[in-house]
Specification:
extended, about 325 residues, Serine Threonine Protein Phosphatase 5, Tetratricopeptide repeat, alpha/beta, Rossmann fold
Length: about 325
């Protein structure tokens, strides 16, 4: 057990601290002219034994790295992805403490890498947190799920294809067997799309780097908790997710849904203008420019000119020119 514990990175510092006195004592005996010969020989043996594990670990890691070349060690990919996501989430909410609902293993890494809070880990001190997480996973009513999430201060839900813990949490909560179906819980139903996504969940896109070679069947699901947001705001959030995922047709549909619900919704109109301009669809762009001017009145022109400026500054001069041209066409008598 001791060797297995030392093998874990978080215990290597403690193990090294225990080795230091042994090394110092051995060096003193080796360098001492008054020490008997047998003590000096014993000191060399102690020094060798103390440094052998670390030296062997370094040697095998170097050999393993040379064998892999530029390939990423697949065993560390989940941890690397979790750390990157935690850092991104923290950057989007500076000064705000993140509280994440995830699987037990992922929760541990969230706490370690992201400095965030998580509900359930597999440490015995956190048994109550495990129960609370299992309860949310297994709830059938999304309104009840939101109530519990708000009570616990959860800000995000983070799920991985390799560690979703979806049905397992539900089985634990309901006392089911390992082969029993548990697809009607809140999180399993969310993952499998068997019920509409609640409007208080905003999806956030995270692209899995291709160099990790995880395969097309692997995925990451991130949701921000946004209670009280309108359906228009939810459609806008979904559209941003779809744009980041490269699904422009779906994003356009979501943006038009948001605008239909709230015609004066500025961020959705700007996003739609930018999308149409980048796709170089002059007729649709002219129609949307006209609609923006009609619904936003005196602010409409400033918003359109700002959108054109943003396109120009983002190295999209052609799209910026298309937007400026559409605006100019409307000014003609």
């Amino acid at each position: 057990m001791t060797l297995l514990a030392i093998r874990q990175i978080r215990w290597s510092g403690t193990a090294s601290a225990m080795v230091i006195p042994m090394v110092l004592a051995a060096m003193w005996l080796i360098l001492s002219h008054h020490a008997p010969r047998w003590r000096a020989i014993s000191a060399w043996a102690v020094l060798l034994l103390a440094t052998l594990p670390t030296s062997a670990a370094i040697f095998f890691r170097v050999m393993d790295a040379q064998e892999r070349g530029n390939m990423v060690d697949q065993s560390i990919v989940p941890s690397v992805v979790t750390r990157d996501i935690c850092q991104r989430l923290a950057a989007t909410a500076p000064g705000k403490r993140l509280v994440v609902l995830a699987s037990p293993s992922t929760s541990t890494e969230i706490i370690y890498y992201g400095g965030a809070k998580a509900l359930g880990t597999l440490y015995w001190e956190n048994l109550e947190g495990l129960r609370k997480a299992a309860e949310i996973y297994s709830l059938r009513d999304e309104n009840e799920a939101l109530r519990r999430i708000q009570e616990l201060g959860v800000t995000h839900i983070l799920l991985f294809s390799w560690d979703s813990f979806g049905q397992r949490y539900v089985r634990l909560q309901r006392g089911l067997g390992k082969d029993d179906e548990a697809r009607d819980g809140f999180i399993p139903a969310l993952l499998e799309g068997t019920r509409p996504q609640p409007t208080w969940l905003t999806p956030l896109y995270y692209p899995l780097p291709e160099e990790y070679k995880l395969g097309n069947d692997q995925w990451v699901r991130i949701y921000a908790i946004a209670p009280g947001q309108s359906r228009a705001e939810w459609f806008h959030g979904v559209a941003i997710y779809q744009l980041d995922a490269g699904k422009e047709d779906l994003a356009e549909r979501s943006l038009r849904e948001a605008i239909a619900l709230e015609p004066d919704k500025i961020n959705s109109r700007v996003a739609l203008l930018l999308l149409l301009a980048s796709q170089e669809r002059p007729h649709d762009l002219a129609t949307e420019v006209r609609s923006t001017l009609e619904n936003l009145h005196e602010n409409g022109r400033q918003i359109i000119e700002k959108a054109a400026s943003d396109l120009a500054n983002s190295n999209q001069p052609s799209a910026a020119a298309s937007l400026q041209k559409a605006l100019a066409e409307l000014d003609k008598p």
